[in-house]
Write a structure and sequence with these properties.
The protein is about 80% helix and about 0% strand. With about 220 residues, it is an all-alpha fold. It is elongated, with a radius of gyration of 25 Å. The chain starts with 10 loop residues before the first helix and ends with a helix. About 30% of the residues are buried.
């Protein structure tokens, strides 16, 4: 049975923010729990990290996308100038691009003539095919930043919830179990979207998260000692 192709989604953005937030907070919580048995201190430290991490990830997401947008616009300006100044060279580059795809003879000539007869199509083809660059819309910059920020907040806040209602030891066990389950589910979902191995993806996500958690725990023990 033919399956429809999966459309592009925000999965990578959600995983980026959610995994970063969850891994960071679980490492911190383990470290704090190893150094102190005060729920108030753990919650205060966790909340401080959550808001700092969320703002940081949102800002990084915004600045990185804006850098991509500025780079695209700079290359676009350069490409427009080259098409105007050296059209024969740019036309040959179009021919080389499609010749490399297997087109030749009259068909290749017709493709080159069609593309170079439309200035916008010509520029767009050079940007996509030669430079492998896609336009970055400002709305997408905001959406990407918001997605990463909200995912970071959600991923980092989840393991902290048990500390509001349970003793430190029980809350820590609950947070660890929640984190492992969430990381495994995210890994399985990622594999389903990308047609990879679900078990491998789940274990990969869990190992990464728990590795950071163990590092935080060891640091906490060091300072406690």
């Amino acid at each position: 049975m033919h399956e429809p192709h999966k459309k592009n989604s925000r999965l990578s953005d959600i995983i980026l923010g959610g995994q970063d937030g969850l891994v960071s907070i679980i490492g911190l919580l383990l470290g704090l729990a190893a150094a102190t048995k005060s729920s108030r201190i753990i919650i205060a430290g966790g909340l401080a990290m959550i808001f700092a991490e969320t703002l940081s990830m949102t800002a990084v997401a915004y600045t990185s996308k804006m850098a991509d947008r500025d780079h695209y616009n700079a290359e676009l300006e350069r490409e427009v100038k080259e098409v105007e100044d050296v059209p024969d060279i740019e036309r040959q580059e179009i021919a080389d691009i499609y010749a490399a795809k297997g087109f030749k003879g009259k068909l290749l000539t017709d493709i080159v003539d069609h593309i170079t007869s439309d200035h916008e199509l010509w520029i767009d083809t050079m940007m996509r095919e030669e430079l492998d660059l896609m336009p970055v819309i400002k709305r997408d910059v905001y959406l990407y930043s918001l997605t990463v920020g909200l995912s970071t907040f959600s991923g980092s806040f989840l393991p902290l919830i048990p500390f509001f209602f349970m003793s430190v030891h029980l809350a820590l066990m609950t947070a660890l179990i929640l984190s492992i389950v969430v990381l495994a589910v995210v890994g399985i979902y990622k594999a389903r979207m990308t047609l990879g191995s679900q078990l491998k993806s789940a274990l990969q996500m869990v190992f990464i998260g728990m590795g950071a958690a163990i590092a935080g725990y060891l640091i906490g023990l060091l300072f406690k000692a």
